[in-house]
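COMPLEX REQUEST
Ligand: S-adenosylmethionine
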Amino acid sequence: MEANPRRDTRILQCRPGFEADCAAEAGPGATVLGEGIVGVSAPMDSWPPLADLVFARQAFRQVAELTELPPGDRINPILAALAAHAGPISVLLLEHPDTNAGKEIAGFLRKFTPALTSALGKHGFKLERGAGRRLHLLFTDSRHLRVGFSAGDEGSPLSNGILRLKMPREAPSRSTLKLEEALLTFLDAQEQQRWLRAGLTAVDLGAAPGGWTWQLTQRGLRVTAVDNGPMQPALMATGLVEHRREDGFRYRPRRPVDWLLCDMVEQPQRIAALMADWLTRGDCRRAVFNLKLPMKRRHDNLQECLKFLRQRLDSAGLDYRLRCKQLYHDREEVTAYIALT
Ligand SMILES: C[S@@+](CC[C@H](N)C(=O)[O-])C[C@H]1O[C@@H](n2cnc3c(N)ncnc32)[C@H](O)[C@@H]1O
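STATUS: Structure written out below.
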């Protein structure tokens, strides 16, 4: 008889309220462990990279769970749990769920970090840039802790997998952060240099008041902003924006553009079909768009949209890269990126 394959426990963090979607996406062996936390029991070689998961923002392999950390001495039980895993680490990530309770834990973690870092350093967990593995300590309260490691694309080097961005004062809307996060998440530094520069063109559907358009004009691109609503006057004064008060579902550019952006609040199936039309007709080379999630069957609904998009692009014979993520700045939506290659 074949021996049972070894099963490892992978811990995923997601936006609170999306645990069921995160678990459904992770597949068999996934269970909701608490607010914003899902566990997956499966052989490690079957784990997809974090970037391929839409709902998970952080992931690591659990090596220990501590449930009764004594308030007077938390450090020694942590060192004991880690005794068999000594070796350099590239970063120590002290994490917590993205909940109100989690924010209280963050305050406690700030005080606790210097002493813990120093104790870990003395017990074989030196911080070294090229160490290749990250140490995760995920606190669900001040006594309950999950300990583990991630390496390479298994997890994120950012604490809680969250890319924190500062709201630029001159930007027309907070939505600007969504596009900034999307560009930094989906494009590497080289792609950003190549594809976000003066001389390139974009269309922004549902652009008003201009937070997404602003991200591109800041990088020197020319943007056609399509929306019946008003655009921020300072943005229009850059001379880089043409405002067209038209229906985003009907507008088409006279010449192909480099980028299509779309933040219209509409049924996700309608947005997916529109994106597929633009890409398959050659109207744009890359697209960033939001898919608003329905109230029910969010994971299934999203999978149907992504499958539809792939089928349309495949049957047009296109080579492309498709990424989709529930970003930190997304709420009841996810952001997708398609680049023709
Ligand atoms: C969430 S807001 C966009 C915010 C914008 N991305 C920003 O960063 O400032 C959605 C916009 O879509 C526009 N919209 C909705 N349906 C549209 C349509 N059919 N055609 C054009 N614009 C539409 C609305 O007028 C609204 O301004």
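REMARKS: The mean pLDDT is 95. Residues 100-122 form the longest helix (23 residues).
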